[in-house]
Write a structure and sequence with these properties.
CATH class of the largest domain: Alpha Beta
Strand content: 25-35%
CATH architecture of the largest domain: 3-Layer(aba) Sandwich
Helix content: 10-25%
Order of helices and strands: EEEEEEEEEEHEEHEEHEHEEHHE
Number of strands: 18
Number of helices: 6
Structural class: alpha+beta
Radius of gyration: 21 Å
Mean pLDDT: 95
Strand order of the largest sheet: 2-1-18-17-15-3-13-14-16
């Protein structure tokens, strides 16, 4: 398929600039992919479509204050560092904003004694940089949470760009499908509906910011992101499948983690996710802790995920391609047109959908 197949027109007025309050008052589009049926409701009613014993898999990553202002040591010229991935305590993969920044250049972090040296130039504005000391302990004072470029105003409460269940620092963007959950809603789902919760971690990185630049989607190279699934959570998920209950990924990041775990359990490679030849309807997941560059697009054989809770994604994005793989291309694109007709709010602070 062509990347252009996943393009669509979106009025600027439908791009959410701030979150709704309370979190669970956002709109929810429920998409029955088998019967091609759409229902409109609000997120706090998500339990109406869940059954006792179903497992919600939540990505517990926390967004770090990864945007750091700096200046060039030699000239004083402005620079900006967007931390992407920690390679060691002092060495980071980062996007660097500024003119004429070369290997060996030193960037002084504003309002601190920290200094970063450019060690390697990679694609576009990506660089490998090394700090004179570990930067993580300083980020709460010198850094800010990076919001997507289509959001023009910082929320008054920085925690509004975090899920309520975050606990593992490392992302440069929020797993936005989880932003709709409140403590009361999760408590209701567990105690009143009999829903079980499992957790995974996927630290969101470069592909959140990088556009797809190829024409054919199979030519796109996914950058790797660190993910982990514990043995306790893997067992909880596998037991649900054996009981005949559903495993529902809260967000595309949870879906990637689960499918990576299923591919690894069969001895496969997430970079080359061939459809399994075995006759079983699902593939057990295994605990793991490693990078994944799994790219899911139409034609992919889903191994474990039975449902996805997700926001509405950017045109021509890998996230939209994943949803089209799960729901079907026509169902997905028709749902997006339906969302526009019903004034759904799009992207990170926007409304939600549940596809099953």
């Amino acid at each position: 398929m062509q990347v252009s197949d996943f393009d669509y027109n979106l009025p600027q007025s439908l791009i959410a600039q701030k979150p709704v309050e309370p979190r669970d008052s956002s709109k929810l589009m429920v998409i029955d992919r088998q019967n091609n049926r759409i229902t409109h409701t609000v997120f706090r009613q998500i339990g109406d479509w869940l059954e006792a014993g179903d497992v919600l898999v939540l990505n517990d990553t926390r967004v770090i204050p990864a945007r750091v202002l700096a200046h060039k040591a030699k000239t004083g010229g402005k620079a900006e560092i967007l931390l992407l991935k920690s390679l060691t305590q002092t060495v980071w993969e980062a996007l660097i904003g500024g003119r004429n920044i070369h290997v060996g250049d030193q960037l002084m972090v504003d309002q601190s004694l920290l200094m970063a040296t450019v060690k390697e130039i990679r694609e576009g504005s990506m660089r490998i940089i090394e700090f004179n000391e570990p930067i993580m302990p300083h980020l709460t004072t010198i850094g800010t949470v990076p919001l997507p470029p289509y959001i023009h105003t910082q929320p008054s409460d920085q925690e509004r760009y975090q899920t309520i269940y975050n606990r593992s620092e490392g992302s440069v963007a929020a797993p936005t499908a989880g932003l709709h959950f409140t403590e009361d809603l999760l408590t209701h789902l567990v105690r009143e509906k009999g829903i079980r919760l499992a957790y995974c971690t996927l630290h969101i990185g470069l592909d959140t910011f990088q556009p797809v630049k190829v024409d054919k989607i199979q030519d796109h190279h996914m950058h790797s992101e660190f993910a982990t699934l514990s043995s306790v959570d893997a067992n909880l998920i596998n037991q649900a499948k054996l009981r005949g209950n559903r495993v529902i990924a809260v967000g595309t990041t949870s879906a990637r983690t689960l499918e990576t775990a299923a591919i690894l359990s069969a001895g496969g490679n997430p970079a080359h996710p061939q459809a399994p030849t075995e006759s079983c309807a699902w593939r057990p997941v295994t605990a793991f802790e490693q990078e994944t560059n799994l790219f899911i697009y139409p034609g992919y054989h889903w191994r474990v995920v039975d449902g996805i809770i997700t926001n509405f994604h950017l045109p021509k994005s890998t996230l939209l391609m994943m949803i089209a793989s799960f729901a079907g291309y026509d169902t997905t694109m028709n749902a997006y047109e339906e969302a526009k007709r019903n004034d759904y709010r799009f992207f990170s602070f926007g409304d939600s959908s549940f596809i099953y």
